[in-house]
Amino acid sequence: MSDYASNYYRQTADSPVSYASLASAEQADVCVIGAGLAGLTAALTLARAGQRVVVLEAEQIAWGASGRNGGVVSPGYATSFAKIAARAGYDNAIRLHRLSIEGVDIVRGNIDSLHIASAVPMHGALKVSRFENSTQARAHARWMRDTFDYDLEYLSKEEIRHLLRSEKYFHALRDRRAFHFHPLNYATGLARELERLGGKIFEHTRALAMDAAGSDRRVGTEQGSVQARHVLVACGGYTDRLVPRLAASYVPISTYMVVTRRARELIATAIASRCSIGDSRRSSDYYRLVDDGERILWGGMITTRQAEPAHLGTLLKRRMVDTYPQLADLDVERAWSGKMAYARHLMPQIGKLGQGLWYCTSFGGHGMNTTAIGGTVVAEAILGASDRYRLFDPFGLCWNGGILGRAAVQLTYWYYQANDFLQERKSRNPARETTPCR
């Protein structure tokens, strides 16, 4: 597995901040298990309301997907609005999408109010298409404007190829409210504010057991314990079997990223936009310029088992060069991987398991905004301030299918890859697709 310290964000992070391991018995109103972005957001929301909060992290702050992802903060979920509406109903799907927009605002608001300058937010996200579907793209932009008062700007083939010098792209939607940033520095900023408000964070402290302690719950660790009225499990792709039902409800998906060497002039021959870029394929690539345009951060591909990052780095470079042949001489400097938690329905799993036991997990594929809103609504529920978390009730803890479930996910991904390829070929050779054989 790729070491935490080997990824780009760790190498460019703020001065290291470390927290001691738990070696005593602590009392709290809420014990949060997992110091990723969902757990830290929930903990900070609770601390701002005056709650005594203890956070237990088995590794380090944002060690999992929260600290090694694409860093793009934009509305939406990992699945489509149509599929959300089919399960939750149209009106609730509208409410859920509004929550996803609110999640973007929460992250931006924290960066501004906590002065997390090292998060280096850069505004703008481009959703590019590698096949012709301009009618659907324009219709989606109109729907977003009319339904959510949310503006997306349509860019034609000529406009997008002026920004992204690739023959692969047909058009794009530009979201000026979305942004990209340094997620690990953001997480560190949340942790500092939590500590300033009196919250306690313990790293290298794995929760090993949990049992009832009167009206409270007691979480045991190797050298200490936490007794609290509420326990929130906010782990991701590295969730262990502390709560077996949670462990059986998600599929751990590995994803891969690379960062290139510094080559500002070469990169400028391909990419002339500071927006983040993601394509509309289900097996998509996502990338952005970092270090003031000197390097490219590029991600993509998923597997249901951890692969060697260096090998996957070679494959990701091939995908980069397939999009931008002029970057063939641009070397990859560093490659890394990480696990995300996906539920079978591709939505966050947020809810309650018995008295005082809460969960907030499965943000794979669209976590930067959804961890923010997920952590917020579950904290509101613990405080008794709202029941907005109930909007996620239709997306419960369905069984992940075990080994067969993982195999099904991998086969589905390969199917999406094949379908994407056929759609691209059809867009580039329309006459060939419609001419009958003779």
In short:
The protein is an alpha/beta fold and 438 residues long. The chain is built from 13 helices and 17 strands.
Key traits:
438 residues, alpha/beta, FAD/NAD(P)-binding domain, eight-stranded mixed β-sheet, 17 strands
Describe the overall structure:
This protein has 438 residues and is of the alpha/beta class. It has a single domain (4-392), classed as FAD/NAD(P)-binding domain (3-Layer(bba) Sandwich). Helix content is 36%, strand content 24%. The chain contains 13 helices and 17 strands. It has helices at 8-11, 37-48, 81-88, 90-113, 134-148, 157-163, 183-196, 244-247, 264-268, 309-323, 367-383, 402-428, 430-434; strands at residues 25-33, 53-56, 72-73, 122-129, 153-155, 171-180, 200-202, 209-213, 216-220, 225-233, 251-260, 276-279, 285-290, 295-303, 332-342, 349-352, 357-361. Strands 3, 4, 5, 6, 11, 12, 13, 14 and 15 form a 9-stranded mixed beta sheet that branches. α2 packs parallel to α7, α2 runs parallel beside α11 (367-383) and α4 crosses α11 (367-383). The longest helix has 27 residues, at 402-428. Mean pLDDT is 90; it is low at 431-438.
